[in-house]
Design a protein that fits this description.
Elements: H1 2-7, E1 22-23, H2 50-59, E2 62-64, E3 67-69, E4 76-82, E5 89-98, E6 104-105, E7 111-116, E8 121-123, E9 125-126, E10 135-136, E11 141-149, E12 160-166, E13 174-177, E14 193-194, E15 198-199
Parallel strand pairs: 9-14
Antiparallel strand pairs: 1-4, 2-3, 4-5, 5-11, 6-10, 7-8, 7-12, 11-14, 11-15, 12-13
């Protein structure tokens, strides 16, 4: 249900902050799990794929002196919030605001791991969607979504505590708290999907 919903482009980004917000500059930096230069090639959500990297570089990036400029983790204020609109389809909106002084590109898929109460870190797979050009001027926001089915039985085996995010084409990670009140995950973490960034305008 939610997969079709997202593919049809009905998700809308929100740049509103939440209690799970974190500034990239003030967060603990961890080993990268994101696309474009990450060593975590075994993580499905974070493995680099040349075709998508080229698409991000060619379409969504700005160029300075012939070099592509991607948004750096340290220049992004990142937060996560529960954005589900019903009791069946879970959605987490993760917003990234360009706090830098120059325009940059956030085109592509962010690398996402979900950390569980048992201290394991679970890579999140990419949904079937094409990246959109996502160029951010200073102060602009981009959003991407995590989508899953909600378990209303009370028997969910997933107990997420944190969302570890590596922006597209970056290697530095920030850790966000799992939004309070978000619906329980039905199935396993492999049933959660991450969708590409898009602007909030």
């Amino acid at each position: 249900m939610w997969r079709r919903w997202l593919r049809e482009g009905l998700v809308q980004g929100s740049s509103s902050s939440s209690s799970s917000s974190a500034s990239a500059g003030g967060s603990k930096s961890e080993s990268g799990t994101g696309s474009g230069g990450s060593d975590a090639s075994n993580a499905k959500s974070g493995s680099s794929e040349d075709a998508e990297a080229r698409a991000g570089a060619g379409n969504g990036a700005t160029k300075t002196g012939g070099k592509v400029t991607f948004c750096k983790t340290e220049d992004l204020a990142i937060d996560a919030r529960d954005a589900a609109t019903d009791k069946a389809s879970g959605r987490i909106d993760i917003t990234m605001i360009n706090r830098g002084s120059t325009t940059c590109s956030a085109t592509g898929f962010a690398g996402v791991n979900i950390k569980d109460t048992d201290n394991t870190s679970n890579p999140i797979e990419r949904g079937h969607a094409q990246p959109r050009i996502t160029t951010l001027k200073p102060g602009d926001a981009a959003v991407f979504n995590l989508a899953y089915d909600i378990d209303n039985t009370g028997n969910s085996l997933a107990h997420p505590t944190n969302i570890q995010v590596t922006p597209p084409n970056e290697t530095h990670t920030v850790s966000l708290r799992w939004p309070a009140g978000a619906g329980k995950i039905k199935g396993a973490y492999t049933d959660v999907e991450v969708y590409p960034t898009h602007t909030t305008k």
